[in-house]
Amino acid sequence: MEQSSDEVLFENYRSGDRQALRTLIERHQQDLMRFLIRLVGESAGAEDVFQETFLQIHLSSDTFDPTRRFRPWLFTIAANKARDYLRRKGRRRMLELSAPVDGGGGDEPAGAFVDLMEIDLPGPDARLDSEETSRLVQQALDQLPAMLREILLLAYFQRLSYAQMHEELEIPLGTVKSRLHAAVAAFAKKWDALSRETEH
């Protein structure tokens, strides 16, 4: 069963195999928890959202389209549950970006968007250790509006494509691109400021 695809396992679960869901939980636990801690900003809240996510997976099992991939569906449900959690906590800051941020017609090719790898992250020989880098990344993420933080994490931590985010978040493709562009730019600005503070 360990070698079965997520989609096969979930179909088995829908057919009554309870162990299949436990296998899926174990398979995605580490990645999903990392994603949720980044999104929510703290471990206790991430644990709550993790539990709520798999409860929702169970409740919504009949709505899953077996022709689509399980992982994007899982992470989108997790992002929605995290959004609900942040709303309950009163930490949700919304930013609507329905127009392209470059002021153009929104036809900018995907390659024109800034890649996070181009941001001046410290190299392996830098003074900052990985724990400090992780803390600074979290600080920069925490300072972003929830909507931008969510799309940044889905794109760069979960590697969802524009098309997947368009489908899963149910927003126009142009909005996905402009929102992600804005998120990367905002993250880069926050990261740069925090890095300079650390150097002094």
Account of the 3D structure:
The chain has helices at residues 6-14, 18-40, 43-59, 70-89, 130-142, 146-157, 162-169, 173-199. With 200 residues, the chain is mainly alpha-helical. The model is unreliable at 91-128 (pLDDT under 50). The radius of gyration is 18 Å and the shape is globular. The chain folds into two domains: 6-89, RNA polymerase sigma factor, region 2, helix turn helix motif (Rna Polymerase Sigma Factor, Chain: A, Orthogonal Bundle), CATH 1.10.1740.10; 110-199, Arc Repressor Mutant, subunit A. It is built from eight helices and no strands.
The CATH class of the largest domain is identified as Mainly Alpha
Please report the total strand number as a whole number: 0
Poorly predicted tracts of residues: 91-128
Structural class by SSE content: mainly alpha
The overall pLDDT, averaged over residues, is 77
By CATH, the topology of the largest domain is Arc Repressor Mutant, subunit A
Helix content: 55-70%
State the end-to-end distance.
53 Å
H-E string: HHHHHHHH
Number of helices: 8
The name of the CATH superfamily of the largest domain reads Winged helix-like DNA-binding domain superfamily/Winged helix DNA-binding domain
Instruction: Tell me what the CATH architecture of the largest domain is.
Output: Orthogonal Bundle
Strand content: under 5%
* Silhouette: globular
What is the domain total for the residues?
2
The major pleated sheet works out as:
none
Radius of gyration from CA coordinates: 18 Å
Indicate the topology.
Elements: H1 6-14, H2 18-40, H3 43-59, H4 70-89, H5 130-142, H6 146-157, H7 162-169, H8 173-199
Helix pairs in contact: 1-2, 2-3, 2-4, 3-4, 5-8, 6-8, 7-8
